[in-house]
Amino acid sequence: MDVSFLGGPRPQRGVAVVAPFDFALDRELWRWVPDEVSLHLTRTPFVPVEVSLDLARLVSEHETLGEAVRALSAVAPEVVAYACTSGSFVGGIAGERAMCAAMSGAGDALPSVTTSGALLEALEELRIRRVALVTPYTVSVTRALERYVAEAGIRVTGCSFMGLTRRIWQVPYRDVVAMARRAARPGAADALFISCTNLPTYDVIPQLEAELRIPVLSANQVTMWAALRRMGTRAVGPYQALLDEAARAWPVLPEEAQGHQDHQEHGEGLT
């Protein structure tokens, strides 16, 4: 069979992704990636520890990260991304920066991002100063995330967590939505962040943004957005505020328009 007419395959650009050993959502990461980009994933070594601060420290050790990045160097990626939220916030902002430096050092000065660093980058991009948090973690891991966000000068206005230590990838969308509704009180937060790269979020983001009327960020979303940004390209996704500026213009609802009219009729809000 003569296949010369096909003219392919198309040139591919690579993102090296280092994920914890229990990461189960490879397919979700791919959903934010444009056709011309490939993901090259590797896992950190298995350790018999449940999801906890101890596990976060183990999967983010610089030696472990360096070995993982060197293992991916053969495919010549353009950027390396560490896809783990707790592993990248457990050491605070200084720890996250040191992780990026360690990965870049192991990868011949490749640009490096982490999930938690990408979160702060996304909050800055959207000019967010108040955020609500959703996590599947235990209370101690959740509090560490709150401290990390607060260290960046972001106020946490609400938080909902599940207390899980395993099989986080099996949490159904309905539970994620229920947690989001509890965490994001109307008018209190400028954005919602759904933590943990092992928590499925792709399909709920547009629904929650339409309902809550604030940007909704998730761990996998910000990781892919930041990594692709360093390549000079864009993440793809259906009507997500982080990815599409048009999605950041929240329409005025009929009841809000009526409330504004009532205020004017009673002379409120006039200067």
From TrEMBL:
Pfam families: Amdase. This is Decarboxylase. It comes from Streptomyces cellostaticus.
